Structure formats: C-alpha cells, structure tokens
Amino acid sequence: MTYARIQHHRCTECNHNARIVVSERRSSFQISNPTGKLVCKTKIDGCYLQGQKSCDYLIVDCSDKKAYFVELKGSHVLHAFDQIQRTMSHLRRDLVGYCCFARVVPTKVPVPNIQNNSRTLALRRAFRALGGDLIIKAIALEETI
Questions:
Q1: What's the 3-state SS for the chain?
Q2: pLDDT given for residue 119 in this prediction
Q3: 140, 27 in Cβ contact below 8 A?
Q4: How far apart are CA 126 and CA 130, in angstroms?
Q5: Mean pLDDT, 10 residues at a time, over the chain (145 residues)?
Q6: The sheet that has 19-24: what strands, in order across it?
Q7: Terminal Cα distance for the chain, rounded
Q8: I need a labelling partner for 119 at 20 to 30 A (CA). Which of 16, 25, 86, 105 fits?
C-alpha cells in the first residue's frame, strides 16, 4: 500500500496553494505553504472512512512526506485522541516513510491537566515514534511547511 491510494481518492483535493484551511464548529487548522509545495487534503470522517468515528482530515505535505491527522473538536479532547488513533491505525500502512503529526483543535480551552493525562502522553509517544508530535491548541492552529 502507498499514499497514492489516498491521494487519488475522490475525497482528496491536491494543490500548490499558499494556504490550506480546514474548519468546523468555530475551530480551524491552517497550513501556510509559502513555497508552493504539493499539499493534499483528505476529508476522512464521513468520506474516505465511512461508518466509523475517524479524525476529520488528513493533510499531507507530499514534498517533505509529512502527514497531519487533524481533529476539529468541541471540548472532548480525549475523544479526539480516540478518533486520531483509530484513523492512524487504518491509514498507517499507506503512510510508510511519512512523518506523522497529530493536531487537535477544540473550540474550548482544554482543562489544564490534559497535557499530563496518561492518554495524552501515550499519543505523544506514538507520534514521536513516527517522527512527529501532538499539538493541542484551542480555536485556531496555524503551521508553516
């Protein structure tokens, strides 16, 4: 399996845009792409993976082989972790050789101890092992690739 299976799916949109934005329920994740790399955005929940609770989007920087699992959430951050883990387990074999990152953008600020929660730490370790990390930031998160 390779990423090409996801990249050419009807739920995926690829472009060289300077800005890639996904948003739902007052939360948003944005990637700034000043050098015009090829970036693919796949709607996962309800499109690529149907009938199961998955993260909202997979955004892939095809040039640098970086994959971002994005969950735009209300306030249930721990539920977002489950959705990201479930999606990662389904798609991991398609992303061999990619650094994988998890991004959770809730509409409400998570409780202060969420950063030290055992589930948070476990998900951080899992993504660190894949060359990436986990970031949780309320309302809006922006990254530059």
A1: CCCHHHHCCCCEEEECCCEEEEEECCEEEEEECCCCCCEEEEECECCCECCCCCCCEEEEECCCCEEEEEEEECCCHHHHHHHHHHHHHHHHHHHCCCEEEEEEEECCCCCHHHHHCHHHHHHHHHHHHCCCCEEECCCEEEEEC
A2: 86
A3: yes
A4: 7
A5: 84 97 94 97 94 92 96 89 94 94 88 77 92 93 96
A6: 19-24, 27-32, 140-144
A7: 25
A8: 25
Residue type, 78: L
Q: Which residue has the tokens 């939360």?
A: 27
Distance of alpha carbon 27 from the chain centroid: 13
Residue 139 sits in which domain range? 4-144
64: burial class by Cβ within 10 Å (0-12, 13-18, 19+)? exposed
**Token output for 74:** 């209300």
